[in-house]
Design goal:
Belongs to the class-I aminoacyl-tRNA synthetase family. The chain is mainly α. Helices cover 59% and strands 8% of the residues.
Length: 192
């Protein structure tokens, strides 16, 4: 049995349909052996244009990784779109994603190096509770998005909104300081 069969939207009427037919025909009355899920995806655009070697608008996976790193490529691909619509890999987003990831790493290193300067004890302040709730909500929403393979939404809730919540918490807690446990929880959840 297949956990997941994935292919391009142009192959729905043949490859994906016949995948179901073949499993049903071979394992008649044994649905536990049939494909558990099927996903069709669109084509990949590069900077809002169809990729084509003849026009020069073309980027191989190896070239993209060399240029933006594996993490930058993952970031841009996750943000390029979900579902059957054509995904749009933008080089600007790969650059921005890489910069955001490096900023997160710098923040994490700075916080870990200065853990003793962060507040400890009770996390009962309003700002602490709001930040912790934002972290927990982000975890829950992101997990739900990843389970159904909505990577763009997962990136939104699991990275961008996490970053926004951290920035707001940092701003609101300037007078008393950020709480050590919450900062470590943020870093741990964001790094996953």
């Amino acid at each position: 049995p297949l956990d997941l069969r994935t292919s391009g939207k142009d192959l729905v009427p043949n490859h994906l349909t016949y995948c179901i037919y073949n499993h049903c025909a071979i394992w008649d009355n044994q649905p536990e052996l049939w494909p558990r899920s099927i996903r069709a995806n669109g084509h990949l655009l590069l900077n809002n244009e169809k990729m084509s070697k003849s026009t020069g608008n073309f980027l191989t996976l190896s070239e993209a990784i060399e240029k933006y790193s594996a993490d930058g490529v993952r970031f841009a691909l996750a943000d390029s779109g979900d579902g059957i619509d054509d995904a749009n890999f933008t080089e600007k987003q790969a650059d921005n994603g890489l910069l955001k990831l490096y900023n997160f790493i710098d923040f994490s290193k700075e916080m870990i190096a200065n853990l003793d300067s962060l507040r400890s004890g009770s996390t009962n302040s309003f700002d602490d509770r709001v930040f912790e709730n934002a972290i927990n909500r982000g975890i829950s929403q992101t997990e739900a998005h990843y389970k159904v393979m909505n990577f763009k939404e997962g990136l939104r809730t699991g990275f961008f909104e996490f970053q926004d919540a951290r920035d707001k918490y940092r701003e609101l807690s300037q007078s008393v300081g950020m709480h050590k446990d919450l900062v470590l929880k943020f870093i741990e959840c964001q790094a996953i």
